[in-house]
Amino acid sequence: MREFEGYIGVFDSGVGGISVLKALAQELPHENFLFFGDSANAPYGDKGPAAVTRLSRRIVESMLEDGCKAIVIACNTATSAAAATLRSAWPHVPIIGIEPALKPAARTFDNRRILVMATAATLKLEKFHDLALHWGSNSQIVPLACPGLADLVETGELDSDEMHAYLREHLGEYRAEVDAVVLGCTHYSFIKRQIREVMGDVPLFDGIWGTAHQLRRKLAEHDLLAPERGGGAIQFRSSIAGRAQVDLYRRLYSLPAD
């Protein structure tokens, strides 16, 4: 893969990080990106911090050996569990993570009820508790673990009966009961419309654009921004062999934004 040297590596446990990739490519259209979906080990939200860190480290090592210049951890769970370890191992490499968008939600809806949808692992980790304590001190933060929801998104069947039934069952009681919803898993960004069908016209927050802006800042700090000429290229890889999974990645990447 040396012909693609100097790319930005983006990884997630599966398809969710593609929602981040779309924002990154829009923010930095001259950069080359390689997206790696670790779908064979999805979802990371069902794994412990040590396992997530081990998987993340393996991916980063491979990308850096291939000439990657920066890393984006496009997974809330992996950011919480592994980002500090990865940055310590490679202190000179820009490594950007993503976290639940509690900060903008709390600033916008001070003294209100904010529902945070996330994996159980993300909600258990210290990073989330620190965010909730700092940014949610004046608001009521309502954490909602969504086991199995990332798996449903992984199928690519975003409008399946099972998807709609899941959202009605888990979110129905919060309709008209919260002022904002934070999407604490990158997978959930693909089902914003489906979430609104259950929750009504409630503001949804995710950390995608914050990550894109931070990547630009870090590349500039390290003098790594690509020249502003021509369009960058995007490659997709998966830990699942065969074309079907990569074809799913490309299909999701081409979906219009909600």
Verbal overview:
The protein is built from eleven helices and nine strands. The mean pLDDT is 93. The protein is globular and about 50 Å long. Helix 1 packs across helix 10 (208-221). Helix content is 44%, strand content 15%. The strands form two sheets. The protein has a five-stranded parallel beta sheet with strand order 4-3-1-2-9, sandwiched between helices.
Mean pLDDT: 93
The strand order across the widest sheet is 4-3-1-2-9
Terminus-to-terminus distance = 33 Å
The main β sheet shows up as: 5 strands, parallel
Strand content: 15-25%
Q: Could you tell me the radius of gyration in angstroms?
A: 18 Å
Helix content: 40-55%
Put simply, the count of helices is 11
Question: What is the number of beta strands?
Answer: 9
Contiguous uncertain segments of 5+ residues: none
User: Which descriptor suits the 3D outline?
Assistant: globular
Instruction: Briefly note the structural class of the backbone.
Output: alpha/beta
The ordered H/E elements are EHEHEHEHEHHEHHEHEHEH
In short:
The chain has 258 residues and is an alpha/beta fold. It is built from eleven helices and nine strands. Strands 4-3-1-2-9 form a five-stranded parallel beta sheet, with helices on both faces. Strands 6-5-7-8 form a four-stranded parallel beta sheet.
Topology summary:
Layout: E1 8-12, H1 17-27, E2 33-37, H2 49-65, E3 70-73, H3 76-89, E4 95-96, H4 102-108, E5 113-118, H5 120-124, H6 126-135, E6 140-145, H7 149-154, H8 161-171, E7 180-183, H9 192-199, E8 204-205, H10 208-221, E9 234-238, H11 243-253
Helix pairs in contact: 1-10, 2-3, 8-9
